[in-house]
Write a structure and sequence with these properties.
Elements (H helix, E strand, L loop, with lengths): L1 H11 L3 H13 L4 H21 L5 H24 L6 E7 L7 H12 L2 E5 L6 H11 L3 E5 L7 H12 L7 E5 L5 H6 L4 E3 L2 H10 L2
Parallel strand pairs: 1-2, 1-3, 3-4, 4-5
Helix pairs in contact: 1-2, 1-3, 2-3, 2-4, 3-4, 4-5, 5-9, 6-7
């Protein structure tokens, strides 16, 4: 439908006010909340995610698109809850100890949420104990770790080792990312997945299901 297409375009172009308005208009016309999410908000986010993977746009544009999607999602969320929309699963997300960078983490959180995951964001400068405590409380099967400094990369390894010590390594899938992190390093520390950007990370999370 034209309205869903306009909603998707508004997300892709990072137009938060339009995304909010079009989401409400879709609902006013009697569309199912899940359809508005999948065919409107997520459709737009998927387009910008694809462009980002192909180096056709940059992080600020992805961040604007994610924020626009969130404007629509705020309207849909209570309705999706009422409709008992099926979550893909829980993801615990955070930046490792010693690192306070959060832009990449925040983009990933919004994109995961927009793709149907329930995201528990524990923030920045997070120690292994906090990750483990949150995983246990939430019974989450996926842990997404971010490190934006080469000096904090060892904290990725430390967190994975702490998971093993806690007896949780077989039940939790760990994916890692961040500017200095590589596939080779992810393999070396025993991570289950690596993503070069947020759009790829969503695909990696889905591959764990």
């Amino acid at each position: 439908m034209e309205l869903l297409s306009r909603l998707a375009d508004s997300v892709e172009q990072g137009q938060s006010d339009n995304a909010k308005d079009f989401t409400q208009q879709c609902l006013d016309q009697g569309m199912e909340p899940n359809n508005v999410l999948l065919e409107g908000l997520m459709a737009g986010l998927n387009v910008i995610g694809g462009r980002f993977k192909r180096n056709e746009c940059y992080i600020p544009e992805v961040l604007l698109a994610a924020k626009a999607m969130h404007q629509g999602l705020e309207i849909l969320r209570p309705l999706l809850s009422d409709a008992d929309a099926q979550s893909l699963g829980k993801v615990v997300l955070g930046t490792v100890e010693g690192d306070v960078h959060d832009i990449g983490k925040n983009i990933l959180g919004m994109m995961l949420e927009g793709s149907g995951f329930e995201v528990i964001d524990v923030g920045v400068n997070t120690g292994a104990d906090k990750f483990i405590e949150t995983l246990q409380q939430e019974k989450a099967p996926i842990l997404a770790l971010s490190a934006l400094l080469s000096t904090t990369m060892p904290a990725l390894k430390k967190t994975i080792e702490a998971l093993a010590t806690a007896g949780m390594r077989d039940t939790v899938k760990v994916m890692v990312g961040g500017a200095p992190v590589t596939q080779e390093y992810a393999d070396k520390i025993g991570a289950d997945g690596y993503a070069v950007d947020a759009a790829t990370a969503v695909d990696v999370a889905k591959s764990f299901l």
